[in-house]
User: Which sequence fits this backbone?
């Protein structure tokens, strides 16, 4: 059972055998429709301004979530993060060793 629909862009009649109706007669009509009916700012990138987490320089970029100003600062930051993770790991290991040493075994 085929159904008849009209193209949203040009109004041309479309015959569809599918359950989901076609909305456009071809890809050109689809792109023309979306170019005319796109909401304002649909493709605009969000601009953000912040400070570099490594050196403190002001960053103004097209990416709102940028945290560092350059690849050199990125490398420094990643090294610092690795060192901090290692320090946390050492601290947890020391705590576990202290707990293990404080356990007293009683023999009957």
Assistant:
């Amino acid at each position: 059972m085929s159904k008849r629909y009209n193209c949203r862009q040009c109004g041309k009649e479309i015959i569809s055998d599918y359950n989901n109706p076609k909305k456009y007669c071809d890809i050109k009509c689809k792109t023309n429709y979306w170019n005319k009916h796109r909401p304002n700012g649909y493709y605009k990138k969000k601009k953000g301004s912040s400070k570099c987490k490594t050196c403190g320089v002001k960053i103004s970029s097209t990416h709102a979530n940028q945290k560092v100003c350059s690849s050199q600062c990125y490398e420094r930051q990643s090294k610092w993060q690795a060192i901090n993770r290692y320090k946390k790991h050492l601290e947890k290991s020391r705590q576990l060793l202290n707990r293990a040493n404080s356990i007293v075994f009683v023999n009957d």
User: Anything to note?
Assistant: The chain has a mean pLDDT of 81. DSSP finds two helices and four strands in the chain.
